[in-house]
């Protein structure tokens, strides 16, 4: 395609993208009356993951306030006990000592009272003084989806697994109130405590086209008053699952949610119902005024920073006091049809828990899979100083390529062959660029990277790769995880997920880590700067017939300085 034609297509896509919903994964409130209470007859194993979190069967969505309490990690999550599509939602509950091996428990919260009869939607936990956890969650009170905020507490604090939760009769704690849209009022955050002796939470909402983080204050956690102004708002559409927390400017250590002093910044993350993607800003919390202001390096909305440029939604962080770190969980939904979910008897996984901290630049977060994941590493192969010339693809043999952890660092002798970056692409969604400059389109410096979940003759593969461009006064690095050729099956959502990487190329190196797990490829660009999760469903590249390659389709020779790949063992998974 000529460059002018290419630009026309891109401009068209930009215009198209601004007026439509751009993510093709299923939303979590789409009701399939015919399927929602159809239990799985058989759970199909082919694309089930080996080491990602999932229950034995049926539908899962949002992780609901993970927490660490008395030596145990708890993960609650939105779950349909009766079927493989969204509906009949309860808070399922699993426990772990390492966030890798999980033991299932009975659902912790399920519809049973007038204040949650039609659903127990997302929320958060807070550990109150005296080491007493409390959950805030959204209850659905009528068939029109009117939403209120409720609380639940453990029935027995000395039960190490906190198996039973009670929902006292003074619920609901928070009603939508005058001027608040009652069907768009949900997902209370973990509370933080201010020096004035008040707890604070935010609740996601919208006013017309404006996403709102409504702020509530309480002295006793029971009686909540809405603040006059929201903590923050922006013209982006509905905000679901907000998350608000401090990050250190000096260290990778996490901070407890109420920390307000020291060399810190705050992060506000929202899940945009309109796009089904998540965006965050880094900024300052003026706690005397209860206002959050994003830094001028962070923008609200579609051009903003994302935890993950792929299939990742409704995420939630928590402070892990046992290791002084902040951990992020996110939901990766299927990219398949609802009828296929019913057929396979399950839908949805949680991504691998990630440690999150502020990059030294102060402009973005970094994310990395928790170190405990490495306990699953089995057979290892490695490569050093392997050159990749234009058109090369080198197989990485000797590991289970369908269930693997791969770390690779690439280097190149020069940046001279980087292709020119057209200034008109600057405002473009990286995904649109990647869909037109895929892994097989010859470039200068890149495309190079990994071909994951590949069949022997490359009828199917999911490439994860970099492509470097030269803009007027800097280089622009594009990272893609492209599902276009991931499966011979046609009726799938196969996006060219992509994000830009803000990285210094002085050392002429780029590194990548990919967690490959049958139907998911979760990738981390240089040091966790850009992360992309793809859900894919190969038909040939499965189990023992799955292969892994490194490739280069750029004219600049690339060197694999070091590659380590491990087969991953199965943890105890529910
Ligand atoms: N999922 C929950 C809601 C939340 C949405 C319902 C996000 O509380 O807003 O299952 O995926």
UniProtKB/TrEMBL annotation:
GO MF annotations in UniProt: hydrolase activity, hydrolyzing O-glycosyl compounds
Top-level taxon of origin: Eukaryota
Segment forming the signal sequence: 1-24
Alphabetical GO biological process terms: carbohydrate metabolic process
Entry keyword set: Glycosidase, Hydrolase, Signal
The keyword Lipid metabolism is annotated on this UniProt entry: no
Residue ranges annotated for the Glycosyl hydrolase family 32 N-terminal domain, each copy included: 52-369
Domain Glycosyl hydrolase family 32 C-terminal residues, every copy: 372-567
Classification via PANTHER family: BETA-FRUCTOFURANOSIDASE, INSOLUBLE ISOENZYME CWINV1-RELATED
Family in the record: Belongs to the glycosyl hydrolase 32 family.
Name recorded for this polypeptide: Beta-fructofuranosidase, insoluble isoenzyme 1 like
Lineage, uppermost ranks: Eukaryota, Viridiplantae, Streptophyta, Embryophyta, Tracheophyta
């Amino acid at each position: 395609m000529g460059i002018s034609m290419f630009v026309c297509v891109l401009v068209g896509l930009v215009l198209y993208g601004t007026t439509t919903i751009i993510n093709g994964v299923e939303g979590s409130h789409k009701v399939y009356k015919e399927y929602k209470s159809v239990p799985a007859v058989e759970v199909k194993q082919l694309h089930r993951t080996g080491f990602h979190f999932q229950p034995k069967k049926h539908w899962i969505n949002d992780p609901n306030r993970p927490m660490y309490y008395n030596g145990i990690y708890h993960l609650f999550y939105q779950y349909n006990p009766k079927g493989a599509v969204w509906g009949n939602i309860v808070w399922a509950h699993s426990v772990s000592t390492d966030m890798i091996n999980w033991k299932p428990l009975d659902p912790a919260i399920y519809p049973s009272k007038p204040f949650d009869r039609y659903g127990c939607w997302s929320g958060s936990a807070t550990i109150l003084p005296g080491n007493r956890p409390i959950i805030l969650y959204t209850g659905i009170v009528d068939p029109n989806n009117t939403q209120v905020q409720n609380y639940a507490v453990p029935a027995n604090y000395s039960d190490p697994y906190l198996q039973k939760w009670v929902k006292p009769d003074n619920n609901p704690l928070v009603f939508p109130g005058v001027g608040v849209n009652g069907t768009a009022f949900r997902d209370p955050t973990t509370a933080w405590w201010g020096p004035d002796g008040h707890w604070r939470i935010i609740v996601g909402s919208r006013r017309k086209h404006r996403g709102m983080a409504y702020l509530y204050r309480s002295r006793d956690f029971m009686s909540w008053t809405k603040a006059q102004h929201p903590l923050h708002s922006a013209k982006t559409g509905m905000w679901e699952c907000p998350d608000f927390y401090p990050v250190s400017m000096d260290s990778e250590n996490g901070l407890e949610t109420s920390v307000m002093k020291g060399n810190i910044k705050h992060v506000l993350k929202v899940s945009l119902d309109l796009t089904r993607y998540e965006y965050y800003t880094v900024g300052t919390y003026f706690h005397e005024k209860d206002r959050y202001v994003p830094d001028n390096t962070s923008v609200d909305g579609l051009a903003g920073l994302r935890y993950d440029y792929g299939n990742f939604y409704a995420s939630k962080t928590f402070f892990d006091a046992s290791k002084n770190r902040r951990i992020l969980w996110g939901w990766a939904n299927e990219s398949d049809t609802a009828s296929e979910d019913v057929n396979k008897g399950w839908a949805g996984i949680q991504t691998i828990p990630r440690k999150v901290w502020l990059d030294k630049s102060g402009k973005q977060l970094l994310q990395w899979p928790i170190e405990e994941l490495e306990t699953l590493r089995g057979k290892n192969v490695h490569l050093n100083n392997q050159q990749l010339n234009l058109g090369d693809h080198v197989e990485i043999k000797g590991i289970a390529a369908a269930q693997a952890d791969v770390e690779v660092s690439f280097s190149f002798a020069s940046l001279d062959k980087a292709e020119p970056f057209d200034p008109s692409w600057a405002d473009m969604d990286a995904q649109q660029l990647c869909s037109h400059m895929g892994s097989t389109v010859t470039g200068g410096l890149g495309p190079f990277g990994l071909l994951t979940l590949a069949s022997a003759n490359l009828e199917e593969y999911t490439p994860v790769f970099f492509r470097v461009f030269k803009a007027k006064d800097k280089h622009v690095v594009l990272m893609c995880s492209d599902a276009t050729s991931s499966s011979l099956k046609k009726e799938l959502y196969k996006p060219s997920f992509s994000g830009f990487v803000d990285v210094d190329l002085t050392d002429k190196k780029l590194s990548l880590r990919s967690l490959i797990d049958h139907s998911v490829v979760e990738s981390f660009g240089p040091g966790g700067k850009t992360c992309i999760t793809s859900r894919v469903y190969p038909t040939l590249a499965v189990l023992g017939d799955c292969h892994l390659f490194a490739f280069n389709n750029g004219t600049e020779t690339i060197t694999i300085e070091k590659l380590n790949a491990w087969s991953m063992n199965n943890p105890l998974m529910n």
